Automatic annotation (TrEMBL):
<keyword id="KW-0560">Oxidoreductase</keyword>
<feature type="binding site">
    <location>
        <position position="201"/>
    </location>
    <ligand>
        <name>sn-glycerol 3-phosphate</name>
    </ligand>
</feature>
<keyword id="KW-0521">NADP</keyword>
<feature type="binding site">
    <location>
        <position position="22"/>
    </location>
    <ligand>
        <name>NADPH</name>
    </ligand>
</feature>
<feature type="binding site">
    <location>
        <begin position="19"/>
        <end position="24"/>
    </location>
    <ligand>
        <name>NAD(+)</name>
    </ligand>
</feature>
<dbReference type="GO" id="GO:0141153">
    <property type="term" value="F:glycerol-3-phosphate dehydrogenase (NADP+) activity"/>
</dbReference>
<feature type="binding site">
    <location>
        <begin position="265"/>
        <end position="266"/>
    </location>
    <ligand>
        <name>substrate</name>
    </ligand>
</feature>
<feature type="binding site">
    <location>
        <position position="23"/>
    </location>
    <ligand>
        <name>NADPH</name>
    </ligand>
</feature>
<keyword id="KW-0594">Phospholipid biosynthesis</keyword>
<feature type="binding site">
    <location>
        <position position="150"/>
    </location>
    <ligand>
        <name>NADPH</name>
    </ligand>
</feature>
<feature type="binding site">
    <location>
        <position position="148"/>
    </location>
    <ligand>
        <name>sn-glycerol 3-phosphate</name>
    </ligand>
</feature>
<feature type="binding site">
    <location>
        <position position="117"/>
    </location>
    <ligand>
        <name>sn-glycerol 3-phosphate</name>
    </ligand>
</feature>
<dbReference type="GO" id="GO:0046167">
    <property type="term" value="P:glycerol-3-phosphate biosynthetic process"/>
</dbReference>
<feature type="binding site">
    <location>
        <position position="117"/>
    </location>
    <ligand>
        <name>substrate</name>
    </ligand>
</feature>
<feature type="binding site">
    <location>
        <position position="43"/>
    </location>
    <ligand>
        <name>NADPH</name>
    </ligand>
</feature>
<feature type="binding site">
    <location>
        <position position="264"/>
    </location>
    <ligand>
        <name>sn-glycerol 3-phosphate</name>
    </ligand>
</feature>
<feature type="binding site">
    <location>
        <position position="60"/>
    </location>
    <ligand>
        <name>NADPH</name>
    </ligand>
</feature>
Length: 348
C-alpha cells in the first residue's frame, strides 16, 4: 500500500474549449481554476492575446480576472493537440462548422461535449444529431446545460448545471472537470430533453421579457413561465425526452433564470421589444449572441412536425419576424379558449 507521501496523483485531463465568447471563457476559466491544463480557442486574435497575456476577456467579460494558467490561441490544431476532452461553446449557427473544423485535429481518445444552446439553423436538427453525423458514432458526446449566466460563473458565484450523455462514463468525466467548490455538476442520460430545455427557454425568456417591457405585471410573468414550462413538457413528450429532465436544471431551472434575470440576453431582447424598440436596434445594443431569434423558428418547425400547438412560442416567433406586434401577441394569447390546465394526454 502506498504511503500518503509516495502516492502519486493522476494528472488532470487536458481540456480544449472552443469558442471564446462569454460562456466559453467563463467555462474555460472555471476548469482552469480546477487545475486542468486548459486551452481556449477563439477566432479573434486580439481577444485570444488579451486572455493569454492580460488574463482578461475585455469584450465579453470585462473587468473579470481570468486564471493565469488559462492559455488562449487562434490556432485550432494547437488547441486540440493533446486534448483529452473537447468542450464546444460557439453559438448554434457556428456549431456544425466548428465540429467539421475540429474533426481532423481531435485526438482519437478525446470525447466532445458542448454548452451551446439551440438547434442547427435551417435543418432544425438537435445538436447531438449534428455531432453524431459529423464526428461519427464512436465518439463520446455530451451536452452541458442548466441555469448559468457566464458572468456569475466567471466571478466564482455558486452555480449548478447538468451534463447529459448516452455514455455515462463520459458524462461523469465532463462533470468531474466542471464540479468544484462553487460549482455543482449533475449528470443524466437524456440528451434530447436536455437540449430541448436549453433551446426552448431562450424563446420563452423573450415572452416574459416582452410582458415585463409592456409592464403587464408579475402575475403575467408567472403565468407565462408556467404555461411556457407546459409547452416545453408537451413538445418534450412528443419527441421522446424524459419529463424529469424538463423539471430539473435543464428545463425549469434555466427557464426561471432566463425569464427573470436581467443578465439574460434573450429576456433583454423581449424587454426592448415590449418597450417598442425594433428588433434590429435591440440585437445591436445587446452585442452578443441572442439564440432565440433562430431557435423560435426551429421550435415551431419541431412543433408542426409533431402536430403540437405552442401558443407562447408561436407568438414569440411571429413578434421576432415582425408579423405581429407585442400587443397583438398579448391579445392572441388572452383570447384563446378556456380549457383544463392539464389535458389528460400530457403525460400519457
Ligand atoms: N453567456 C451565457 O451566460 C451562456 C451562454 N450559453 C450558450 O453558449 C453559446 C455561446 O454563447 P456566448 O458565449 O454567450 O456568446 P457570445 O456572444 O458571448 O460569444 C460568441 C462567441 O462565438 C464566437 N463565434 C461566433 N461565430 C463563430 C464562428 N463561426 N466560429 C467560431 N467562433 C464563432 C464569437 O467570436 P467573435 O467574437 O470573433 O465574433 C464569440 O467568441 C450560445 O449557444 C449560448 O446560448 C449557455 C449558457 C450560458
Ligand atoms: O443560457 C443562459 C443562462 O443559462 C444565458 O441566457 P441568455 O443567452 O439569454 O443570456
Amino acid at each position: 500500500m502506498n504511503s500518503p507521501a509516495s502516492a502519486t496523483t493522476a494528472p488532470k485531463p487536458r481540456i480544449a474549449v472552443l469558442g471564446a465568447g462569454s460562456w466559453g471563457t467563463a467555462l474555460a476559466a472555471l476548469i482552469a481554476r480546477h487545475g486542468h491544463p486548459t486551452v481556449l480557442w477563439g477566432r479573434d486574435a486580439d481577444g485570444a492575446a488579451a486572455i493569454d497575456t492580460l488574463h482578461e476577456n475585455p469584450r465579453y467579460l470585462p473587468g473579470i480576472a481570468l486564471p493565469e494558467s488559462l492559455r488562449a490561441t487562434t490556432d485550432l490544431a494547437a488547441a486540440l493537440k493533446d486534448a483529452d476532452l473537447v468542450l464546444v461553446v460557439v453559438p448554434s449557427h457556428a456549431f456544425a462548422e466548428t465540429l467539421r473544423q475540429l474533426a481532423p485535429h481531435r485526438p482519437p481518445h478525446a470525447g466532445v461535449a458542448w454548452a451551446t444552446k439551440g438547434f442547427e439553423p435551417g435543418s432544425g436538427r438537435f445538436l447531438h444529431e449534428v455531432a453524431g453525423e459529423v464526428l461519427g458514432a464512436d465518439v463520446p458526446l455530451a451536452v452541458v446545460t442548466g441555469p448559468s449566466f457566464a458572468k456569475e460563473v466567471a466571478q466564482g458565484l455558486p452555480t449548478a448545471l447538468t451534463v447529459h450523455s448516452d455514455d455515462a462514463a463520459f458524462a461523469q468525466s465532463v462533470a468531474d472537470a466542471l464540479h468544484g467548490p462553487a460549482f455543482r455538476a449533475y449528470t443524466g442520460d437524456d440528451m434530447l430533453g436536455a437540449e430541448l430545455g436549453g433551446a426552448m427557454k431562450n424563446v420563452l425568456a423573450v415572452a416574459t421579457g416582452v410582458a415585463d417591457g409592456m409592464q403587464l405585471g408579475l402575475n403575467a410573468r408567472a403565468g407565462l413561465i408556467t404555461r411556457g414550462l407546459n409547452e416545453m413538457l408537451r413538445l418534450n413528450q412528443a419527441i421522446g425526452g424524459q419529463p424529469e429532465t424538463l423539471m430539473g436544471l435543464a428545463g425549469l431551472g434555466d427557464l426561471v433564470l432566463t425569464c427573470t434575470g436581467d443578465l439574460s440576453r434573450n429576456r433583454r431582447l423581449g424587454l426592448a421589444l415590449g418597450r417598442g424598440q425594433s428588433i434590429e436596434d435591440a440585437v445591436r445594443e445587446i452585442g452578443q449572441v441572442v439564440e432565440s431569434v433562430q431557435t423560435a423558428d426551429e421550435v415551431m418547425r419541431q412543433a408542426e412536425r409533431h402536430g403540437i400547438e405552442l401558443p407562447i412560442s408561436n407568438a414569440v416567433r411571429a413578434v421576432l419576424h415582425g408579423e405581429i406586434t407585442p400587443a397583438d401577441g398579448l391579445r392572441k394569447l388572452l383570447s384563446r379558449e378556456q380549457k383544463p390546465e392539464y389535458p389528460t394526454d400530457l403525460f400519457g
